[in-house]
Write a structure and sequence with these properties.
Blueprint (H helix, E strand, L loop, with lengths): L2 E3 L2 H9 L4 E3 L6 E5 L3 H11 L8 E3 L3 H4 L8 H10 L4 E6 L6 H4 L4 E5 L4 H9 L4 E2 L14 H8 L5 E3 L11 E6 L2 E6 L5 H8 L3 E2 L23 E3 L2 H7 L5 E5 L11 E4 L6 H16 L5 E4 L7 H12 L3
Parallel strand pairs: 1-8, 2-8, 4-6, 5-9, 10-11, 12-15, 13-14, 13-15
Antiparallel strand pairs: 2-3, 3-7, 4-7, 5-6, 9-10
């Protein structure tokens, strides 16, 4: 099994040798490899059983360092980088030839971000290459927000897990880019639409749900528990599935009708930031319970609720 610890120097050594290390970020844990080493990057796809057409995110420690790997950085996107990096924002930019095509799945743009976690920022400053790092889980399954999640899922396949505690944001980064001279959003995430629009104006929403992604995290089915996840009116779903053992994912003040059922409340106070931080952990707990199906309703369609709904819909069976 992978060792778990806080040894940044060991993590740097292993990555320099072409090995995989799980790293903490404020969003979720990533499965990292030297992004300039195609053989190391190929190991990410192999360990995760990830399709090669699904691109990876490049992680580095500053805007200035990111400039070494991209051909152009349009001013509106640079404004966002200066404002929100380090943070849960990924920016899609034209890549330089020093980035292997495997990282971008053959696409001309590379997704770049600066993660907001002190241990990973320290690690990135100790190595002379960026890291390619998708979420540290088997492809399509629930993203890990604690080192123990990584150990359960990939512990037999990697050498080391850098333990940075529980991820504070709990949802993957928001992805933005430029199309037709305007800023657009490709994936909802830990940074809200409103926060971004306050700096660059109205965004065009280009959320893709297909098997032909042009950015990471756009596949139609993703983030899924093993057990079926149904979204709708919770009381209706409970009635329709009353012959089954049900696990309920709840938000806000709990209904008397589900108090005695197996349930996890993402936020009793109805706080979307708290719900986002708890989402993947809650899904994992229900998936590991004795329930047969998991049911939930949509979150409020505002702020981080958009990102939570996106993850729920990609994880659901309908």
């Amino acid at each position: 099994m992978a060792a778990i610890g806080k040894d940044i120097l060991l993590s740097a050594k292993l990555l320099s040798e072409g090995k995989l290390v799980a790293i903490p970020t404020e969003t979720v844990y990533g499965l990292a490899a030297n992004a300039l080493d195609p053989i190391a990057v190929a190991k990410i796809f192999e360990v995760k059983n990830r399709p090669f057409f699904d691109p990876l995110i490049l992680h580095t420690y500053s805007l200035e360092k990111a400039m070494e790997y991209v051909n152009d950085f349009p001013e509106p996107l640079k404004i966002l980088a200066k404002t929100f990096w380090p943070g849960p924002l990924t920016i899609l930019l034209p890549k330089k030839n020093n980035i292997p095509d495997l990282v971008t799945s053959g696409l001309q743009n590379v997704a770049v971000r600066v993660p907001n976690h002190p241990m990973t920022l320290a690690l990135l400053q100790k190595i002379n290459f960026p890291l390619a790092a998708p979420s540290a889980n088997p492809f399509g399954y629930i993203s890990p927000t604690e080192s123990s999640h990584v150990e359960k899922q990939l512990g037999k396949c990697i050498e080391y897990i850098l333990d940075g505690g529980v991820c504070k944001v709990g949802l993957e980064s928001t992805i933005v880019g430029i199309e037709n001279n305007g800023v657009c959003i490709y994936r909802f995430g830990g940074l809200t639409v409103g926060e971004i629009e306050s700096f660059v104006g109205k965004l065009e929403i280009k959320i893709n749900k297909s098997d032909n992604p042009n950015a990471p995290g756009q596949l139609k089915n993703h983030y899924s528990p093993i057990k079926p996840l149904l979204i709708g009116n919770i009381e209706t779903l409970m009635e329709e599935n009353k012959s089954k053992k049900i696990g309920v994912l709840w938000f806000g003040k709990i209904s008397e009708k589900i108090k005695n059922s197996l349930n996890i409340n993402l936020s009793e106070e109805g706080n979307l930031a708290e719900a986002a931080a708890n989402l993947f952990s809650a899904l994992r707990k229900l998936d590991e319970s004795d329930c047969e199906i998991i049911i939930c309703s949509h979150m409020p369609k505002t702020g981080l609720g958009l990102a939570i709904n996106d993850r729920l819909e990609r994880a659901s069976v309908i």
